[in-house]
């Protein structure tokens, strides 16, 4: 075999994902001539402290100077796995402006600055790939951009946060309350020391912004995504859901409707026969509907060192192939439409509402009357528990405009007979 070209790579960061990428590049070293037609070589690894030992990484590759990478013309691919907005944003933009291709796993950055960075990549004829920014090791962005490009996609929904899915699974299977399940998730390493981004839905919201932008060819940012977390879900809600033939999941939902894009993240009752209802523990899944493909689901591990490194590695190999065939920059921003994005008050949903009310005749009639005056129809009522002298009432509504339900809820909260609105959850 003739002497092969070397494609030189720089890693920005050597944390969990960065170490995983380094391992994979070395593990795949002998395969690269056949997969890429070139050798893939890690030239530099940018770290904060190059004197700190990194297990499994050659210390001679470590640098704490960005200039060692940006000024090295031999480095063709920059892999950003450091996370956060800055300095990652600056480094990626400078790399693209210098004609270097970039692979990133940074969902926060892509959700906020994706258009700017993709435009910079296009201006400089470079690749900017970010498969690992959504759903860890599950291939989803490339299928949306490539394999499903012949479809008019109308829905992308899924479980895209492993921490919250693990918590809800433990609550469902073992009867844990939220705080207990969160403590277990933290102990096992599924939850960060500060779990806010996960449990309040922000992490999933960023991923949904990225997927909606690609699926519907129209720019969606994190600020466009309505987010609601799982902190108010109780084991009692999950038990009620089971009795109704449903599971409760934190779902990201994006729909392309005739009146605009809906994009939101919130807990939802979903029928047990839906494929997403059986996705448990820290696994992720994304469900896609297109006019040609019909329904498709992508399932797997949504986080972790090697699953995320797998997605990063796939992008690196893709870029390396483009380098070999002189075709970098083939696909850039695909948001060629400018579709309106609907506010949450403009979206229709069904609702599960659990409340404590006075246990006396006429209470249900008053609640039904209040709902009716706000154009909210009742689909089902369950009343079987008493707490002290109060009745626990569960109402399931028909599909209703969010604003109408919000108005009805305000009225019900203000009624003398209502002692507590315990939970409100949307129903798929």
From TrEMBL:
Active site: 207 (proton donor)
Residues annotated to bind L-homoserine: 192
PROSITE patterns: ACT, HOMOSER_DHGENASE
Keywords: Amino-acid biosynthesis, Metal-binding, Methionine biosynthesis, NAD, NADP, Oxidoreductase, Sodium, Threonine biosynthesis
Tagged with keyword Metal-binding: yes
InterPro entries per UniProt: ACT-like_dom_sf (IPR045865), ACT_dom (IPR002912), Asp/hSer_DH_NAD-bd (IPR005106), HDH (IPR016204), HDH_cat (IPR001342), HDH_CS (IPR019811), NAD(P)-bd_dom_sf (IPR036291)
Catalyzed reactions: L-homoserine + NADP(+) = L-aspartate 4-semialdehyde + NADPH + H(+)
Gene Ontology molecular function terms on file: homoserine dehydrogenase activity; metal ion binding; NADP binding
GO-annotated biological processes: methionine biosynthetic process; threonine biosynthetic process
Pathway linked to the protein: Amino-acid biosynthesis; L-threonine biosynthesis; L-threonine from L-aspartate: step 3/5; Amino-acid biosynthesis; L-methionine biosynthesis via de novo pathway; L-homoserine from L-aspartate: step 3/3
UniProt binding sites for NADP(+): 12-19
EC number: 1.1.1.3
Cofactor or coenzyme needed: a metal cation
Pfam families for the chain: ACT, Homoserine_dh, NAD_binding_3
Binding sites annotated in the UniProt record for NADPH: 107
Residues of the ACT domain: 352-426
Family according to the record: Belongs to the homoserine dehydrogenase family.
Protein name stated in the entry: Homoserine dehydrogenase
Organism: Anaerostipes butyraticus
